[in-house]
Amino acid sequence: MTPAPDADDMAHVESAACEPSGSSGDKAALCTYTVKVTSAEAAESPNGAWHVGVLASAEDGGTTFAPKAAGFTVKG
What we know:
Oligomer: single chain
Radius of gyration: 15 Å
Strand content: 35-45%
Helix content: 10-25%
Number of helices: 2
């Protein structure tokens, strides 16, 4: 099994597209990231539970890393 990426690994990936979410005073955002895969790549993906790691960057330059921010299941 390949180990999960860490914060250093995540610093070199593409950014998600984020839009403000919630009321005007709320600092929440909804971020989406799209991964394009071929049919062959999708067929080769192992079935089961997967997790999404997230490196969030603040306007002041601070960062925080969540190795299991979300999850999904691949079914064959």
